[in-house]
Amino acid sequence: MGGFFTNPLIVKELRERFRVKKSIWILALYLLILGAILLGFVYLEQMNSLSAPGENREAFIVMAVIQYGMICFIAPALSAGTVSGERERQTLNILLTTQLSPLKIVLSKLLTSLAFIFLLVVASIPLYSLMFLYGGISPSQLLTLVVFFAVNIILFGSLGLFCSTWVKRTGVSTILAYGLAFFFVVGTGLLVMFLGPLIAEMSDSVQPVDPMDYVGMQVLSSLNPVIIMSNILGEDFGPKLRLFMEPWQFFVIVCCLLSALLVAWSGYLLRPIRRSWFGWRKS
Questions:
Q1: What is the mean pLDDT of residues 87-110?
Q2: DSSP letter string over 223-279?
Q3: CB within 8 A of 184, min separation 6: which ones?
Q4: CB atoms < 10 A from the CB of 190, how many?
């Protein structure tokens, strides 16, 4: 594993990404904006003398929503051009002649493309410490939120990487990655919203039917990141989840499995000669 993290592709791309002034300015601007929002809320809380300790979590929720919006917007774009960009620059074939296997290449691309957004999230964690002054959140809640952000970054990055490997053009790959990410974030929520009344309407039972009694609806709701994040934040948004484990744990497991599948599939697509399930070869 140590050899993997020091392979020439990772070293080269990390140097290119972090040894530029633009990265420092983006990080500084990002922390400045988040800090300004946080200080604004602190000022408003001090102006509101009726607010009770432990009940002021608006700043925490706003910061979490902003960070998740940033993840949804940036993570797919960062990885959507990693492989297709190499193909457009006509350097992909040269990369495939190195000693790195296709799987190591896609893993290296995923790591280097998501390193900066991980840096943004980690750098913003100290800002959350101010939230503890006002109560209403716990360290375990903050840790769960960070894990939630991390698995979303990896999933969206894997999605963009898969699109970049599957589609030859970076523009098309980016649009496709955004479309799939939009379906994951918004589409699953709309399905929950529309399927619930439809199931209740189609039921033959005389008694009122709760759509959330069906396992499929529980699973579908637990796959929606907005519902899961509101559950982590302790907000009553979306249906009540009654799984055999904590909903965020189920979400994390599914996202990790999906990410592993997408990365493995990308590695397979990148192989110059692939053996299909039917035994014949194609290039």
A1: 89
A2: T-HHHHHHHHTT---SPPP--SS-HHHHHHHHHHHHHHHHHHHHHHHH-SSEE-TTS
A3: 155, 159, 223, 225
A4: 11
Contacts of the segment 226-235: beta carbons below 8 A, 24+ positions apart: 226/185, 226/186, 226/189, 227/189, 227/192, 228/148, 229/64, 229/65, 229/68, 229/145, 229/148, 232/141, 232/144, 232/145, 232/148, 233/57, 233/60, 233/61, 233/64, 233/141, 233/145, 234/57, 234/141, 235/61
Q: What's residue 185's pLDDT?
A: 92
230: Cα separation from own chain's centroid: 15
Q: Model-level pTM?
A: 0.87
Closest CA to 131 of 73, 67, 75: 67
Tens digits of residue pLDDT in 223-280: 999 999 988 888 777 777 777 788 899 999 999 999 999 999 999 998 887 766 555 5
Please return the burial class of 79, using the count of CB atoms within 10 Å of its CB with bins 0-12, 13-18 and 19+: buried
Q: Give, in degrees to the nearest 5, the angle at Cα 36 between 31 and 40.
A: 150
Identify whether the C-beta of residue 223 lies closer than 8 Å to the C-beta of residue 188.
yes
Mean pLDDT throughout 143-168? Answer: 92
Q: pLDDT by residue (tens digit) across 24-79?
A: 888 898 889 888 888 887 777 777 655 555 556 777 888 888 889 988 988 888 88
Instruction: Give the residue-averaged pLDDT of 135-155.
Output: 88
Q: Minimal CA–CA distance to 162: which of 81, 251, 256, 283?
A: 81
What distances in angstroms separate CA 1 from CA 8, 98, 129, one per listed residue?
14, 18, 33
Q: Are 226 and 64 in contact (CB under 8 A)?
A: no
